[in-house]
Design goal:
Bound molecules: adenosine-5'-diphosphate, magnesium ion
Largest sheet: 8 strands, mixed
GO molecular function, one term: ATP binding
CATH superfamily of the largest domain: Histidine kinase-like ATPase, C-terminal domain
Shape: globular
Family: Belongs to the DNA mismatch repair MutL/HexB family.
Order of helices and strands: HEEHHEHEEEHEEHEHEEEHE
Number of strands: 13
Pfam families: DNA_mis_repair, HATPase_c_3
Structural class: alpha+beta
CATH topology of the largest domain: Heat Shock Protein 90
GO cellular component, one term: mismatch repair complex
Helix content: 25-40%
CATH class of the largest domain: Alpha Beta
Number of domains: 2
Organism: uncultured Microcoleus sp
Radius of gyration: 22 Å
CATH architecture of the largest domain: 2-Layer Sandwich
Strand order of the largest sheet: 5-4-3-6-2-1-7-8
Number of helices: 8
Length: 337
């Protein structure tokens, strides 16, 4: 995805936080300064990974070609941090959150400081402090120092698009904040277990408390909708040849969709895509006698934990509700495949 707005930068960073298993994500934005920060309590990075994180095509999410066909993370191309280093001033603070070897550092009061990166490899990661790395526009680490932070990662981008003025849109600060809020809402319904906060500077403007499904999340930001107006349904889809075919097509479309833009060649024929046998579909619907909207703005489709535009599916949902919703009113419906 091209990073062409603060909202797009926020989306990339937040997806990294989710890939790192974060359950608490705080997004702070200073639109006038073209500055943004995403802080999470995810796995963090050791010094070695941190120093490499913004170099071109650097990813920890795939190691072999075969991994391409069982991707379970939102990112895998290793482009976001590198692009952000090119587009602004990038600083990352990180402290590994691997609890396995907590005693390692506890018992080493006299640990060399900074420890050599080989000490931080493998599992020996629960460093007592984290690291702060500043990158240049080529994505190379140019400043490295220890930093006292909680386990997790804090990414800050300053002066975004400073050298790319055409990407500095003429949107007002309020419009930018709305677009960020809307992106976070779409991500939040696909990741209901996360505690989300959005701040403009230090002023809180949006907060989502976690729940077990999207049913608990939607009422927090769709005005006029209460949890009791919604129904949640989880359907297991049997592994029939049709489902397998449809699933293959979906995986293929996603992979091809994300690779075509970057001119990569897909090395394996589509017939080799394998999707797991157990598939399910989650559905959150507003009971049509209790909630309906003036616009179809909350008819959403999610695939593999990302909201996507799917005009066919959206149309199918709208047609299905055409008779039950009052005239010229639209349902609240989120389908997650
Ligand atoms: N918030 C984060 N927590 C832990 N690791 C991160 C975080 N953000 C980035 N990383 C590390 O930096 C690498 C590069 O990130 P990115 O450029 O977005 O590429 P990708 O997400 O495609 O791997 C990731 O593979 C991951 O190892
Ligand atoms: Mg990423």
């Amino acid at each position: 995805e091209v990073i062409d707005s603060i909202a797009a930068a926020v989306r990339e960073l937040v997806e990294n936080s989710l890939d790192a298993g974060a359950t608490r994500i705080v997004v702070s934005v200073w639109p006038e300064q073209w500055r943004l920060q995403v802080a999470d309590n995810g796995t963090g990075m050791d010094l070695e990974n941190l120093q490499q994180a913004a170099s071109p095509h650097s990813t920890s999410k795939i190691t072999t070609e075969a991994d391409l066909y069982k991707i379970a993370t939102l990112g895998f191309r290793g482009e976001a941090l590198h692009s952000l280093a090119q587009l602004g001033c990038l600083e990352v603070l990180s402290r590994p959150n691997d609890l396995g070897l907590g005693d390692f550092w506890e018992n080493r009061e006299s640990a060399p400081n900074p420890p050599s990166s080989s000490l931080l490899r493998g599992g020996a990661q629960n460093a007592r402090s984290g690291w702060r790395v500043v990158y240049n526009n080529a994505g190379s680490a140019v400043e490295v120092e220890t930093a006292a932070i909680a386990p997790g990662t804090v990414v800050t981008v300053d002066n975004l698009f400073g050298n790319w003025p055409v990407r500095r849109s003429f949107l007002s600060a309020a419009q930018q904040m709305r677009s960020i809020q809307s992106i976070l809402q779409q991500i939040a319904i696909c990741h209901p277990h996360v505690n989300w906060q959005l701040r403009q500077g230090n002023t809180p403007c949006f907060h989502v408390t976690p729940g077990s499904t999207a049913e608990h999340i939607l009422p927090q930001f769709v005005r006029g909708v209460r949890a009791s107006d919604l129904q949640y349904l989880k359907l297991d889809l049997p592994a029939s040849p049709e489902n397998q075919k449809a699933g293959n097509l979906l995986v293929e479309t996603q992979l091809v969709g994300s690779t075509v833009k970057h001119n990569y060649q897909l090395p394996i024929a589509s017939s080799q895509f394998q999707i797991p046998n157990s598939q399910f579909l989650e559905l959150v619907v507003g009971l049509p006698d209790r909630c309906h909207r003036r616009r179809p703005d909350w008819v959403k489709v999610g695939v593999n934990r990302r909201v996507v535009r799917s005009p066919e599916l959206e149309q199918t949902i709208l047609s299905a509700f055409a008779r039950t919703c009052p005239r010229d009113r639209y349902p609240v419906c989120f389908v997650h495949l």
